[in-house]
Design brief:
CATH topology: Cytidine Deaminase, domain 2
Strand content: 15-25%
Shape: globular
CATH architecture: 3-Layer(aba) Sandwich
Helix content: 10-25%
Number of domains: 1
Number of strands: 7
Number of helices: 3
Distance between the termini: 27 Å
Order of helices and strands: EHEEHEEHEE
CATH class: Alpha Beta
Largest sheet: 7 strands, mixed
Radius of gyration: 15 Å
CATH superfamily: Cytidine Deaminase, domain 2
């Protein structure tokens, strides 16, 4: 038997102002994307924004549906839109923000497992590490790659 350990590295910022210009732009796009959320059931609005290798930013917002689970998370909305519109461009980063009643949550918005797996798929497709920025009103977490938010990625097929 061999005991192993998985380590996760990330940087915590106390405000959006501490981010690099590029990351601040992406985080701001995610916050603005929250406006496009359709969340009549949870009232939890999530926005996501992805940056492509050419600098283009594509945004998405969560879309709920009475026929649960027919809705879609903000992260997958943005990733699928980027993948469909720019199929040959790698995604280099994603930012996620969430809140209620137009106010961003104090703690960072974290993606669900399905969204993490889709991020992993697009990271593999692009052949480059995709950084993940989880935005909160009181702190922001930046992970260097999807591997840090989804260890042991499902990639056996």
């Amino acid at each position: 038997m061999t005991e192993k350990e998985i380590k996760i590295a990330f940087t915590e910022y106390s405000s959006i102002e501490e981010l690099s210009k590029e990351d601040k732009e992406l985080a701001t796009a995610a916050i603005l994307a929250m406006r496009g959320a359709y969340a009549p059931y949870s009232h939890f609005h999530v926005g996501a924004a992805v940056r492509l290798e050419n600098g283009t930013i594509v945004s998405g917002a969560n879309q709920e549906n009475a026929a649960f689970p027919s809705g879609l998370c903000a992260e997958r909305t943005a990733l699928f839109s980027a993948g469909a519109t720019y199929p040959d461009k790698a995604i280099t980063s994603i930012a996620i923000a969430g809140g209620v009643m137009g106010r961003i949550c104090a703690s960072p918005a974290t993606p669900c497992g399905a969204c993490r797996q889709v991020m992993a798929q697009y990271q593999a497709k692009g052949g480059k590490k995709m950084s993940v920025i989880m935005v909160g009103g009181e702190k922001i977490w930046k992970f260097p790659s999807v591997d840090d938010v989804l260890p042991l990625i499902f990639d056996s097929i």
